[in-house]
Amino acid sequence: MMQLNAQQQQQLDELIALLRIPSISADSNYKESVAEAAQWVADALTKAGCDHCEIIPTAGHPIVYAEKIIAPNLPTVLVYGHYDVQPPDPLDLWDSPPFEPVIKTTPIHPDGAIFARGACDDKGQFFMHVKALEQMIASNSLPCNVKVMIEGEEEVGSDHLEDFVRANTEKLKADVILISDTGIGSMEAPAITTGLRGLSYMEVTVTGPNRDLHSGLYGGTVANPINVLCKMIAELQDDNGKITIPGFYDEVVTYTLEERKAIEQAPIDDEAFKNALDIAALEGEKGFSTLERKSIRPTLDVNGIWGGYTGEGAKTVIASKAHAKISMRLVPNQQWEAMSQLFKQHFEAIAPKGVRVEVTTHHGGKPYVTPIDNHAYQAAHKAYEESFGKAPVALRDGGSIPIVPMFEEVLGCKTILMGFGLNSDAIHSPNEHYGLANYFKGIETIPLFYKHYCALDKKV
Ligand code: BES
Ligand code: MN
Ligand code: MN
């Protein structure tokens, strides 16, 4: 376990306090806890020394906004993060309650990790910025202006943030956006995330007979909606792991061999990947590496499926309806609205006559690729190099932060993704955790970004 000095102990205690607030944005029963977390974050930003701090109510959950303006002629960094968390279920798979943080060591985190929902995604990560800012303000070393925007709806699609950003482009004006809400690859060979996938999230309902039926009296005479749904889902991918929706790959950017070699600078160790998940084999699109499959290639996954009898024991029944939630991860230049439309058309087209299908879109988001030939990326590169003693590699990740491409479109600002999480941190899963070493390394690296970003030789 890591020895902490008094300042680190304080930084950890504050994070623990934030992690105790169950700010689950998806569940309306937790609306007050989400509001409580917003207030807590606003207080922390005020304490950090921000001049101006406000909680902006929305039709959903509030946005926390704060500023520290040093001088109007200096560059401005806009920090974004989210204080909302994913629902913690299934609760019985947690070793300790999700909102009662505990610190434990693991083989990957010999210095200790903090276990709680939101520890890595994203409370532990955005709070590093609050603490780094506090240190820079206290020591008079903040070299530029900082605006901080922490939202409470990232995990449910950032619906109201978009309106807020569109209505406040002057207030949010910045030179670069800085986000810690992604991974670092590994602490020994750090990586800066340079890409995020887009997303289309669909829901389908297959309806057969007008009521549930006795599976003996009717079985074999009607299309069973659950059987049909499973068959339709199976048809969405072929034996090579390619998605069969017509037109799905039309806009996908293909890479040259040279570019693909560059991507493999920090390859995934397939053996370690399998072992960590207790699986005998990896599956995916033929002809691509594990890293490529989860970064530059689009994918399709069922996230949930339900229908019929799922209670105790056995009930002989043909359900009238079957449902599934299906997500597609998208890559440049796929447009999520168009992909949702293609999915809908195809899913309706492959339905057999004996059922009706209904397809709806939940939400979506564009993919994003950060350019690396700019001063801000170079500053992040130098910051990691200085704090880790090793030059970071550029790595595209598989997750999505749909607000990032929106920032670029509305604010005209590039985003730098300075993430410190590990793949094994179990974000969105039971026993989510965040390494203490990662947390403190983040607090150390962020001020170095500011130092290099504001250095006089502001050239690419
Ligand atoms: N922080 C994640 C995204 C992420 C994690 C990107 C790790 C890259 C590496 C974010 O909170 C998230 O979970 N995003 C959602 C999308 C959102 C619209 C619900 C996702 O990727 O599923
Ligand atoms: Mn996140
Ligand atoms: Mn998340």
Main β-sheet description: 6 strands, mixed
**CATH class value of the largest domain:** Alpha Beta
The stretches of 5 or more residues where confidence is low (pLDDT under 50) are none
SSE topology string: HHEEEEEHEHEEEEHHHHEEEHEEHEHEEH
Strand tally is 18
Q: Give the full name of the CATH homologous superfamily of the largest domain.
A: Zn peptidases
Strand content: 15-25%
Number of domains as seen in the coordinates: 2
Q: If strands are numbered along the chain, what order do they take across the biggest sheet?
A: 1-2-6-3-7-17
- Overall CATH architecture of the largest domain: 3-Layer(aba) Sandwich
The oligomeric status of these chains comes to single chain
CATH topology call of the largest domain: Aminopeptidase
Going by helix content, strand content and strand pairing, the class is alpha+beta
Tell me the number of helical segments per DSSP (H or I, 4 or more residues long).
12
